[in-house]
Amino acid sequence: MSGYEKLICMFLLINVQHCSFFPLSDNDINITGPFYPFGTGDTVNGRIDDGSSSVIYLQQPFIFFGQTYNQIYVNNNGHLTFDGAWYSYSPYQFPAYGGKDLIAPFWTDIDNRWNGVISYQQYTSGSVLTQATQDINQYFPDLSFSASWVFVATWDRVAYYYNSGIETSFQVVLISNGHLSFVVINYGAIAPTQRYVQAGYDTIDSSHHFSITGSLQNDITSLPHSSNVNVPGRWAFRTDHGSRGCQFNGNVASLTNCMPYFLFAARL
């Protein structure tokens, strides 16, 4: 089946009884996947192996499973931390039962010295808030949510250590209205690697944690095909107090919100 035929079926999901699951081929994956806007106006991290941003003071507090944070760090090796810059390039498995709140869209040994851009930006008005509001109300339809703050961090076509020229793209989006908090993780083209990758989130003492399918496996390139919200390459979680979302105290809280969704293609 051609990529064109697959696109037809994605947009014409009328007679789904004539459709069957298919994994998208690499040619079907957009480099930027289902990404939020990035680039223009972003602050860019330095081209430093195992580097990090300086402290980023949040324009609105972000609640992460009961902890309220006013600052964050974008670490080059594919994770966000709240209590300080973190340079770890060797992922551990979630749950870790450790002492760190951690959001890890793609934790591995990233090296942006030769190619790729790591950048971030906050929003308190405009079209990005409109997009975030629409997305959260689609994924969590009983909340009547209206976003007042969005933080977008993007790893655009970065390389693994020590492989100049290899390109991997992913993004993490924090969304809040001051009371409810959400994390959206987006995957574009993911280059093969023999290094381990951990994707998901973990909290202090692992009271809340989630590991995205494919983590710590040899082949992580399936991430652009996977989702828990019926959007290939996107995972979304509510993260304020754990009352909704994919995993709460190690147990599945809502099968509807947790199980991966897949695209369908017509049998032609």
UniProtKB/TrEMBL annotation:
Domain of life of the source: Eukaryota
Keyword Protein transport: no
Residue intervals of the NIDO domain: 105-242
Signal peptide: 1-21
Matching InterPro entries: Alpha-tectorin, NIDO_dom
One of the Pfam families matching this protein, by short name: NIDO
One record GO biological process: cell-matrix adhesion
Keyword tags: Signal
Protein name per UniProt: NIDO domain-containing protein
